[in-house]
Amino acid sequence: MLTENRLKKSIRDGTLALGLTSVLPLPTLVELVGYAGYDFVILDQEHAPVGPELLENLIRAAECAGITPLVRVPSSAPEAISRALDAGALGVVVPRVRSREEAEAVVRASRFHPKGDRSLGDGRPTGFGRMALPEYATRANRQILVVVSIDDRAGVDALDSIVTVEGIDLVMEGAVALSQSYGVPGKLDHPDVQAAIRKVAQACRGNGVSYCATPRLPDEAERWQREGVAALLLGDDRSLTFRALQARLDNVRLELTTQ
């Protein structure tokens, strides 16, 4: 059943929130992320094989571990947004937002009347009818977090018109997608990609909109904190797991060769 969105409260209170993307569709791993102390998790439906039933179980795992579940939906289609929210997500991350019109459509698909036209029905968020629909609609409009991701050159060029749309709660960037859009696939340190990331952050700061940064270099987290970002996305579970497995193996091999 819909509860208080603690991530949204942290943003409102000015408390830095720390999160992780989950691309390994395993409920137990989502629980681990929560019990490790992260504030929020982004469940990836864009790049991971996550269907409706599995998504519900991933969200249940997040609820169990007390971590705020957001869903990165595969597109800005209203049906994709509605399904994620109906599954119990406390927010959506919408990729490839390129214009003010698209951002406005995302907000409408995420909110109920009078702020939008999201489809209304009973289900998990209402406790299967325990919460009356009028009450749920009012609460959901307060609690659901709407996040847009700037993933290509067109979105960067339209930044000021996108981030000023009423109802956008948080903005983030997709550096890998940006590198593709700028013609340097995978080169996240390329000057054009770094300049695009800075433009996203500056547009948010200049318009008083909350920004979620992704620190990728040493000392970047501290720098972003100084700049007053609302949240930090600290990578994804797949990369962290792979690096931890590699490090463990390398350490043991080193230990064995020095005997």
UniProtKB/TrEMBL annotation:
Gene3D superfamilies: Phosphoenolpyruvate-binding domains (3.20.20.60). This is HpcH/HpaI aldolase/citrate lyase domain-containing protein. InterPro entries: Aldolase/citrate-lyase_domain (IPR005000), HpcH-HpaI_aldolase (IPR050251), Pyrv/PenolPyrv_kinase-like_dom (IPR015813), Pyrv_kinase-like_dom_sf (IPR040442). Belongs to the HpcH/HpaI aldolase family. Keywords: Lyase, Metal-binding. PANTHER family: 2-KETO-3-DEOXY-L-RHAMNONATE ALDOLASE, PHOSPHOENOLPYRUVATE CARBOXYLASE FAMILY PROTEIN. It comes from Pyxidicoccus parkwayensis. Pfam families: HpcH_HpaI. Residues 27-214 form the HpcH/HpaI aldolase/citrate lyase domain.
